[in-house]
Amino acid sequence: MPSTLQLHPINALIPQVSSTTAEPRSQNQLARQLLVLPTSFIPDTALIYHSRRVGPDQCCSAVVQSISAPVDTVWSFVRRFDNPQAYKHFLKSCHLVFGDGDIGTLREVQVISGMPAASSTERLDILDDERHVISFTVVGGEHRLRNYRSVTTLHPTKDSRGTVVVESYAVDVPPGNTSEETCGFVDTIVRCNLQSLANISESMTRN
Fold first, then answer.
1. How far apart are CA 56 and CA 27, in angstroms?
2. Residues 6+ apart with CB under 8 A from 89
3. Please, is 81 exposed, middle or buried when counting C-beta atoms within 10 Å of its C-beta (0-12, 13-18, 19+)?
4. What gap in Å lies between CA 18 and CA 111, rounded to an integer?
């Protein structure tokens, strides 16, 4: 199975009414954004991770990558919260500032020069080795991606020889930018990361 990647934009907006009175949408009301995902590969129990509640000044999207390597091989890279630069080549270093890799651990990553960011402080929210789910939230740093939250899930192909990786996110739209511009930028970063993940996972499998 060759590596393939698809971008999956928002499919629908379902308003969630937060009061019993019929009031106009306010800044405090949220909408649930459902992402179009390849459900033939993703069990219903995993789809909940990629259903986003976002505010009017946020956007969300998802990127799907097929990898010709078993889930265990791919997961060995993805689960390393302390070493994201192993496949995220826009990062030059990472060190843990709190915790030892369990839920609530904080890491600080340094970004390579030439990017519109210098550093990011991120908190590990989910690490499920059984279901192959990892999630983190950006809680600080020198960058413009405020309230960024990412969830990545891994799913075996039908023959169990390949892996489908889904990475979705929600983030604030920076002042002066549109949702399309923000998602376009983040999608590009995520796409490059997942293509790098595919390359190193498939190389390990061949060796």
1. 6
2. 112, 192, 193, 196
3. buried
4. 39
d(CA 192, CA 28): 34
Task: Please give the Cα distance from 39 to 199 (Å, whole number).
Answer: 24
Give the separation between CA 51 and CA 207, rounded to whole angstroms.
Answer: 37
Dump pLDDT digits (tens) for 71-120. Answer: 999 999 999 999 999 999 999 999 999 999 999 999 999 999 888 889 99
Pair 142, 121: CB distance under 8 Å: no
pLDDT score for 47: 82
DSSP sequence for 131-188 = TTEEEEEEEEEESS-TT-EEEEEEEE-TTSSSEEEEEEEEEEPPTT--HHHHHHHHHH
Q: Residue 152 corresponds to which tokens in the numbers above?
A: 């990545």
Identify the pLDDT of residue 192. 96
Q: CB neighbours (10 Å) of residue 37?
A: 21
Angle between helices 71-78 and 179-206 (to 10 degrees): 120
Separation of alpha carbons 53 and 48, rounded Å: 11
If 0-12 CB within 10 Å is exposed, 13-18 middle and 19+ buried, where does residue 45 land?
Answer: exposed
Tokens standing for residue 162: 């390949």
